[in-house]
Amino acid sequence: MSIISDKINSTQARRRLVDGNQRFVNGTTFHHRFHAHGCAKDVKEQSPFAVVLGCSDSRVPIETIFDQSFGDLFIIRIAGNIVAPSQMGSIEFAISKFKTALIVVLGHSNCGAINATIDECINKTNLSDGLYSITNRIKPSILPLLKLNLTNNELVDKAVEVNIINSVKQLQSQSPIIKEAIKNNKLEVIAANYSLKSGAVDFLT
């Protein structure tokens, strides 16, 4: 059962995520089963030790891959782990309310949103307005890569990484709340990439 965490700094928060992911990869997880009532009934208040902006992909269950439980992580999920106004607002809420010291932008290999954006850029695919609102935010990460002589797999892998980094930069530069917390050494925003094949999370920054 998870215990509501005391306030920890970004280095300690990152270590918890690294250690949890290592347990997941090794098959030695603490939270391999969730007993919904038994775990949740004692978590009366939330005090997440990290915020994670991740992709909506069903193959990336964020609490599971970091071996965390109820109340540990404040998670925002959207296809392509993009930064749109509602995602920014959710993160600002977490930073202001819970004084969380770490934000992780988590992308993953073979991302469907990345593939859809590449397809749109190359083949001028006709998308719905809703889908376009997502791919349009990913395009700046992909368009420069199309000028390089990359195989399709190389293009997807590189685009995933660039998109993650660009989301980190947007969070660092576009939110006064986040910028102030970073300036005061109360917050760190980092990039991470999850491998669907290995189960490992690679921290890019």
Radius of gyration, in Å, reads 17 Å
Calculate the terminal CA-CA distance, rounded to whole Å.
30 Å
Strand content: 5-15%
Named at the architecture level, the CATH assignment is 3-Layer(aba) Sandwich
CATH class: Alpha Beta
Structural class: alpha/beta
Q: Which regions contain 5 or more consecutive residues with pLDDT less than 50?
A: 1-5
Tell me, rounded to a whole number, the average pLDDT. 92
Helix content: 40-55%
Cofactor: Zn(2+)
Organism: Bathymodiolus azoricus thioautotrophic gill symbiont
Keywords: Metal-binding, Zinc
InterPro entries: Carbonic_anhydrase, Carbonic_anhydrase_sf
What does this structure look like?
Belongs to the beta-class carbonic anhydrase family. It is a single chain. The protein has 205 residues and is an alpha/beta fold. It has one domain (10-203): Beta-carbonic Anhydrase, Chain A, CATH 3.40.1050.10. The chain has eight helices and five strands, in the order ααβαβαβααααββ. Strand 4 (188-194) and strand 5 (201-203) form a beta hairpin. The model is unreliable at 1-5 (pLDDT under 50).
The gist of it:
The chain is of the alpha/beta class. It has helices at 10-26, 36-40, 62-65, 85-98, 112-123, 129-142, 152-174, 176-183; strands at 50-54, 73-77, 102-108, 188-194, 201-203. The protein has a single domain, classed as Beta-carbonic Anhydrase, Chain A (3-Layer(aba) Sandwich).
What layout of secondary structure does this protein have?
Layout: H1 10-26, H2 36-40, E1 50-54, H3 62-65, E2 73-77, H4 85-98, E3 102-108, H5 112-123, H6 129-142, H7 152-174, H8 176-183, E4 188-194, E5 201-203
Parallel strand pairs: 1-2, 1-3, 3-4
Antiparallel strand pairs: 4-5
Helix pairs in contact: 5-6, 6-7, 7-8
